[in-house]
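Request from the bench team (R.T.):
"We need a structural guess for the complex before ordering more guanosine-5'-triphosphate. Sequence and SMILES attached. Just send the tokens back."

Command: build protein-guanosine-5'-triphosphate structure.
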Amino acid sequence: MRRVEPQSADQRGEPHPGRGRRAEPVAAGARLDRHRPPVRARAGAQFHLVELSVARLHPQRPRPAAGPHVGIARARRPFGRPPRAGAVPQLGTAVGPCPIDLRDRRLTDAGPIARAIAALKAGRAVRIESATPMTVLSVETATPQMLAIADPAGSAPLLISGRRAAALSLANRRDAADPAEPVLIERSNWLDVDNARSLADPSRDGSRAPIGPLAPTALDRPDEARAALKLARLAGLMPALWLVEADTATGLEMTALAGAGAEVTEVARARLPLEDMPDTQIVAFRASDDGQEHVALIVGAFGGKPPLVRLHSECLTGDVFGSLKCDCGPQLRHALRLIAAAGGGVLLYLRQEGRGIGLANKLRAYALQDRGFDTVDANLRLGFADDEREYAHAAAILKALGIDTVRLLTNNPAKAVGLEQAGIGIAERVGHHMPANPHNADYLATKRARSGHLD
Ligand SMILES: Nc1nc2c(ncn2[C@@H]2O[C@H](COP(=O)(O)OP(=O)(O)OP(=O)(O)O)[C@@H](O)[C@H]2O)c(=O)[nH]1
Ligand SMILES: [Zn+2]
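Reply to R.T.: structure attached below.
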């Protein structure tokens, strides 16, 4: 195992104190694949996540050399903890350098869910460890070779979301036709990697030759199946997984814990003068569970009454490219102007692209909209709920900034409810309407008619 040498201790007090300081050797026996005690998942079930490497699944293959690793700084007093009342950093306040407790850690020592997400995206198997473990591979990313290694008997069934099953007209053939419940489809010899992908991908619904018969079968581990499908969503993948039975005795490569709660850590802060808002700071927060990096823009100085806060969900197409299909770009810029006009407040830029289904899935939804589906039905057809966003990270960031009650800028009551359930008081909901254009008028009407958005 190769390790980057620690830097000398005399760097203390220099502009980046602590970086590389006091790196300690890895404790004897410390291994990536060590088991840690389980923690209670938010849903109430106890899971570990285990990534299975090709090397472990296929012992004849030579193991790659251990990669280089460096120490990663960790704040002694996590920034994620709320500061004292009245101690909200104001503009102009120097932030940092902060005391850091440097542990020697692998760069891959990210949150457990983050590692499982990376594994699924890379086409590797992830085991959801519980009393009845479940090992899955993404239908979207697993190669035929990987599937053959993880499932040499070729018997792995296909796990899809209940909503996708309904779109495939399988719902009425299940015991419980609850769209939130995953569905397991029996393996048959025609169900190969390509056919499974075309089953999962609604853009191929109209073009693929009929495939089947599809035989839904009993699902004995619904909690694990739901957790696995949620992981696929967090990875921005289609909700379809191969359920493989790998050798659990020797298959461990990397152990992680799921459901560690919604902790966030402030990782960087800087001034970011914006047009007409020179007194703005940008703060990056990293979530401990899925590793997602969210951003807070602190505009002006706020204090006293509950600040005006906007939770903006990432929309690459609208925010960056100025897409006319939605109202995100104008909403983002107008929210900042409103916050500045109110004397200060916070905009959270949350990495919830596509209402929580990820960019590729949102673009799949757009392709369905090109074929006549509205924004809600497109999500359902893909196998997702209309809105998959959660607000625990947003609430944790607000608390880290010393905010526990807000005036929330939104037309979406579900957003206010979600934030309130995550522990933030809503003193007032402030409407946030943008004029419609010919390309988004139907979209905005659908959100009012079907998603509960207020006029
Ligand atoms: N899945 C999907 N996501 C979309 C679509 N159009 C925009 N989005 C995403 O929706 C999110 C913005 O949410 P909106 O529903 O416009 O607004 P809201 O946040 O619910 O409500 P407001 O607070 O009133 O703006 C962003 O993450 C966009 O990427 C779409 O057609 N399908
Ligand atoms: Zn948008």
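Two things stood out. Confidence is low (pLDDT under 50) at residues 1-46, 62-109, 248-260. DSSP finds 14 helices and 15 strands in the chain.
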